[in-house]
Structures are given as structure tokens and as C-alpha cells.
UniProtKB/TrEMBL annotation:
It comes from the Eukaryota. Pfam families: DUF223. Residues 6-106 form the Replication protein A 70 kDa DNA-binding subunit B/D first OB fold domain. This is Replication protein A 70 kDa DNA-binding subunit B/D first OB fold domain-containing protein. InterPro entries: NA-bd_OB-fold, RFA1B/D_OB_1st. It comes from Vicia faba (Broad bean).
Length: 387
């Protein structure tokens, strides 16, 4: 007897044998510091509830040809895990993880709408009616472009502009990387389109900090940008209602003066829009802050695990050996632990001394190799000295 289809709202970690009828709202690839690629997607059902799902790297080749944006499916058999993302694409308490027994069947499901947006208005953003760890869909008209730096060869490209909607309030928006390049390319090739109304799917809202204003920005690969897409009813309606309020691409407020190469030094890039704080100032911070400090590195602090820790193959958490299996706090099981950097350094500014921790993603960028490769290199050196 076939199992009944259940709703996304019912999903919890009491079992793994869930069977759902869903449509794929969004999908994107994520590449880890070890250059391993996994797939993330957002699914919704006929009740318009959403849940995020992950296809681990070892299963991407199996499922990548089966999963398509906008298509509907009957899916069953997943691992269910806590929704522990730092920035969550849905407010569901759990996420789905594809496994070897996961079944995906494409079917036409007319009861599930073709599109579903979890929109937040600009007025609600300004009033603080949002969660800083939740990603949102945002529609707005571009009223001014204040800054643009386009460097297509890397993720340093940046465009800063102002968005408005029917509330007539404005919020600053910053796009980085590929989305900044996408907006710039549209700007240069669609001058005849007049004004711009865009949809940001899965966008992050960053609270104001010090001198830095409230800001909407992309969550890298997880954010999708649609520009003047009139096939989306909400975009079409807003463009029509704001047609007399938005400047055209040829107006003075919409001039995008870009640079194709960076005109900034390495130090300029490092302190880009960041406050300079002393160690004592940092010690009294009560909120997350982007800042720059100047200090002297006195020594490395090596704990019991040394300069790295044994990490999970699916996330960045550490693993422990339980019942012959390596398991992290999120209950991911790894066949082998993945070495990940954790460097602790003691720094001094002449008055105070504080310990700083550099995690894997930053260390890989600074050192130029993974913790695994570093470990193998050191083992080879030790072996050559003690054959």
C-alpha cells in the first residue's frame, strides 16, 4: 500500500520516511573551501509552506539532472535535521537532506502554484519587523545608484543603490559579486527599458550598525536577482504603479560610473567601509560589528587539538567518534573526519592583549591551502626527516 502524501508543516525528526508533493522554488550550488560542490533548494507545497533541502556532494551527480527550477515532484525518504543555517531560507524548524534512498519523481501538480514569494515590504524592514537570521524576498524600484565597482573576474564587484515600493520609503541595497555584474550588464544593455523594478529572492537584511545604515544585500549564491521580469505578477504590478515615481536609466540619479579594475590598494580593500577600533573598543562591543583593528601578533595559542580540528564532511561543526561513527552536533555522519583550520593567536596593541580565532574559511584564503593538504605536507616532511 502506497504511503500517503504529507504536508511540509508536518515534517519533524521523528522519522525519515516522509513523502511530499512539492514544487522547486529555488536551487543553487555551493562550493566548499575543499572545492566540493553540493546543491541546496527551497521546496513548497500546496499549503505554501516552505522547507530547505540539501543534496550532499556525493549525490549531486545523481540528482542534478532530475531537479529543475519551477518543476513539481513527488519526493520521499530523507534525512531530517535541524534547520541550523546561520541565515535561514525558511522559518521551518527542520531541513531535508537527500540520501541514497531518496526518490524524486517529476509530476504535474496543478494544486501547487507556479510561484510563491515570501515578500517583506520596505516599510516592515524600516520598522524592524524582520529576523536577522532569516532570508526574504524583496521587490522594489531602483531610485538611485550611489556606487558601483565592477570587476568581473572575482567577487569584489559591488553596486550600492536605493529601493522603494508603494510605501514610498527607501532602503539601501548592496549587491556583491555576480549579482552586481548582472545588474551592471542589464543597466548597460537595456537603457530603453526606462526604470528598473527588481526582485531579490532569498536576500539578507542587515541591521544598522554605528554609522552604517540598514542594508539589504545578497547571501551570495543563495540569492537570485530578477530585473523587470514582467512574467511575475508582483513585479508587473509594482512597475505599473511606480511608473511616474521611478527615474529612468538615463536620468542623473541612475548614472552608474564603474571601474573595470580595482582602483584600491590591498589596504583600501581591507578597510572598505569598516570602522577602526582599538582592542579595548572591541572588548566592549555588544552587537556584531564589522571593524578594523591594528595589533601585533605575539604568538600562536595551540589548544589540545593544535591548529586544526576534526570536522564534519557536510557542515563546519566538529565531529566525535560515537559507536564507531564520526558524528557532528547536527547528527551528520561522516565516514572520515575532515581537518579544518582553527588558529588561535594572541594579539597586542601595546595596551591590551586579546586572543583572536581564525576559522577554516579565512585560513584557507590566507594560507592558500586546505587544512588537509597542510596536514599531509607536514606528515611528508616528518617522514622525510625520520624515514
Amino acid at each position: 500500500m502506497a504511503r500517503p502524501i504529507e504536508y511540509i508543516s508536518s515534517i519533524d525528526d521523528s522519522k525519515n520516511l516522509w513523502k511530499v508533493a512539492v514544487r522547486c522554488k529555488h536551487l543553487w550550488y555551493v562550493t566548499s573551501s575543499q572545492n566540493r560542490e553540493h546543491l541546496e533548494l527551497i521546496l513548497f507545497d500546496s499549503k505554501l509552506d516552505l522547507i530547505q533541502a540539501i543534496v550532499p556532494s556525493y549525490l549531486v551527480s545523481k540528482f542534478k539532472t532530475q531537479l529543475e527550477l519551477g518543476c513539481s515532484y513527488i519526493m520521499q525518504n530523507f534525512k531530517v535535521s535541524s534547520n541550523d543555517f546561520s541565515f535561514k531560507s525558511t522559518d521551518h524548524k527542520f531541513k531535508l537532506i537527500f540520501c541514497g534512498s531518496t526518490s524524486v519523481k517529476k509530476v504535474q501538480l496543478a494544486d501547487i502554484p507556479l510561484n510563491h514569494l515570501k515578500l517583506i515590504g520596505i516599510n516592515a524592514i524600516i520598522e524592524g519587523k524582520y529576523r536577522t537570521n532569516l532570508l526574504y524576498d524583496i521587490i522594489g524600484g531602483v531610485t538611485e545608484i550611489s556606487q558601483a565597482q565592477i570587476i568581473p573576474d572575482n567577487n569584489k564587484s559591488k553596486v550600492v543603490f536605493s529601493l522603494t515600493d508603494l510605501s514610498k520609503h527607501h532602503v539601501q541595497c548592496t549587491l556583491w559579486g555576480k549579482l552586481a555584474v548582472q545588474l551592471n550588464e542589464y543597466y548597460t544593455t537595456h537603457k530603453a527599458d526606462g526604470s528598473i523594478v527588481l526582485l531579490l529572492m532569498n536576500a539578507r537584511i542587515k541591521e544598522p550598525q554605528g554609522n552604517y545604515p540598514l542594508n539589504v544585500l545578497n547571501a551570495w549564491n543563495g540569492t537570485k536577482l530578477l530585473i523587470n521580469d514582467l512574467s511575475i505578477e508582483e513585479v508587473k504590478n509594482l512597475k505599473e504603479k511606480l511608473k511616474d515615481d521611478l527615474p529612468t536609466l538615463s536620468s542623473s540619479s541612475m548614472q552608474m560610473e564603474t571601474t573595470n579594475t580595482s582602483v584600491f590598494s590591498d589596504l583600501d580593500k581591507f578597510v572598505w567601509k569598516a570602522e577602526v577600533l582599538s582592542l579595548s573598543d572591541i572588548a566592549y562591543l555588544q552587537t556584531e560589528t564589522t571593524c578594523v583593528t591594528v595589533a601585533t601578533l605575539e604568538k600562536f595559542e595551540c589548544g589540545q587539538s593544535g591548529w586544526y580540528y576534526d570536522g564534519c564532511s557536510e557542515c563546519t561543526k566538529s565531529v566525535t567518534l560515537k559507536d564507531g561513527k564520526f558524528m557532528c552536533y547536527s547528527k551528520h555522519i561522516s565516514s572520515e573526519p575532515v581537518p579544518r583550520f582553527k588558529l588561535e593567536v594572541l594579539a597586542s596593541d601595546g595596551k591590551l592583549k586579546y586572543k583572536f580565532v581564525f576559522w577554516d574559511v579565512d585560513c584557507v584564503k590566507l594560507i592558500g591551502k586546505s587544512a588537509l593538504q597542510m596536514k599531509l605536507d607536514l606528515m611528508e616532511i616528518m617522514h622525510s626527516r625520520n624515514p
